[in-house]
Write a structure and sequence with these properties.
The protein is built from seven helices and eleven strands. It is α/β, with parallel strands linked by helices. The chain is globular.
Amino acid sequence: CVGSRLLCLLLHWFWPLSLGIAMRAVVAIKRVVDYAVKVRVKKDLSAVDLDNVKMSMNPFCEIAVEEGIRLKEKGHISELIAVSAGPAKAADTLRQALAMGADRAIHLQTNIRTDQELLSLSVAKLLAKIVEKENPMLVLCGKQAIDSDSGQTAAILAGLLGWPQAGSASSVILDDTKTLVKVAREVDAGIQEVQMPLPAVISADLRLNEPRYATLPNLMKAKKKPMEVIKADSLGVDLAPRVQVLKVEEPPARAGGKKVADVDELLDKLRTEAKVL
């Protein structure tokens, strides 16, 4: 009956907490063009050119991984699971998360372009399937990806799960009972402090922490850590894009600077050429 199922779910979530047992967490990561690379657009203006381009972990996701590792080091969680959706080479990004300190990884393999075809809604639905499978008490994400800049996945995931969510986190503190989490959020007016019951979804902002480097010995050890590969289209999620990209263009080239003889000439050019005065 429905009442029995609800009781079982409540026992599942809170019985381990009452025993003081640390819980697992899932961290979602994305493979993107490295932040230091100058992005090129394809000649047909259909998309960003990804051929022979250095790819790396999204910086905000890297911060989320670091926060998960720190929570594990503090004894708040017992296992950190890194999850990523993408092509076969996304496994390299997952290996980086494993080298940083994640315990195991799940690769949701798909050949759909993750920068403009695999939408935030689809990613959130895939992550919801993993949450259903792994039963974590916490899901960590980057607040946005530097390729699509949507910043939607964490909020959509929380909505699908019916969990509380705190975005743009600059501080995450779990209480001793492991039933509540306090999050400092970066908002336009300053810092907003919120408190949520677990399970919850948290997205990381830049000031949350400074990620550690994955050392060579840890990169070698990461090869031995388990990585489960699941075909993304086998999870019953419609991955078809609902948005069509019509054109991708590079920003206009910046004009060269000019030297002026005096302040009067500067003011004249600002008034007549730049038209800012």
